[in-house]
Write a structure and sequence with these properties.
The chain has 201 residues and is α+β, with helices and mostly antiparallel strands. It is 15% helix and 34% strand. It starts with a strand and ends with a strand.
């Protein structure tokens, strides 16, 4: 099982972090050990002083595929949920300054929290989601605002990597990302339904 993540897929998030706008999907990966499921708490690691939350629409691949055409891409998805791409922002900033890879900042253990799976309907043209931190709205997203659509993302990934049943795709985060601290509670809603709860320890 592989976890693919799309960076810089919402313009407002690109602007809030003063990043460059990509001309193709920006891909990075997390290992299976990054998964955090079943509303288990996220324990802040001791190697970072600035862990940020990034709420994202997450899709699950349901069959093997390689070099998938965009017009068939949605046939490869069966479930969706919300996830949190936990990011060690201080480590990421240092890596970017030195042009180093991001793995230490993005792929550490339990850095990919996911919520309860919902049925994916390929006929639904967009999905809205929110993340609340301690009961206050922190992020609000609409998949219509993604720079690269889901068919484009799947086609691009599958050009380089064979997609396998059970692989996950984190599709990028809207603006509003921010730091966490012990005692926080993150709660995500997808199309108005609660799907994600993650206490911070």
């Amino acid at each position: 099982m592989k976890i693919f993540c799309i960076g810089r897929n919402y313009l407002a998030h690109i602007e809030e972090l003063a990043n460059e706008k990509p001309d193709q999907p920006l891909i990075f990966m997390k290992p299976s050990t990054a998964l955090l499921r079943e509303e288990k708490p996220f324990f802040i690691p001791d190697f970072s002083n600035e862990i940020h939350f990034e709420c994202e629409w997450v899709l699950r691949i349901c069959q093997h595929g390689k070099a998938i055409s965009p017009k068939f891409a949605l046939d490869y998805v069966d479930k969706m949920t919300l996830g949190i791409d936990f990011t060690a922002r201080d480590i990421q900033t240092q890596a970017k300054e030195k042009s180093h890879p991001w793995e230490l900042a993005k792929a550490f253990d339990y850095s990919a929290a996911i919520g309860q799976w919902q049925v994916f309907d390929p006929e639904t043209d967009h999905h809205e989601f929110t993340l609340h931190k301690n009961g206050q709205l922190a992020q609000q997203g609409d998949t219509r605002h993604m720079m690269f659509s889901l068919p484009e993302i799947i086609a691009f990934i599958s050009r380089y990597f064979t997609l396998q049943k059970g692989d996950l795709i984190f599709t990028g985060t809207p603006s509003g990302v921010g730091p966490i601290q012990s005692g926080d509670l993150l709660e995500g809603h997808l199309n108005g339904h609660p799907v994600l709860k993650c206490p911070i320890k």
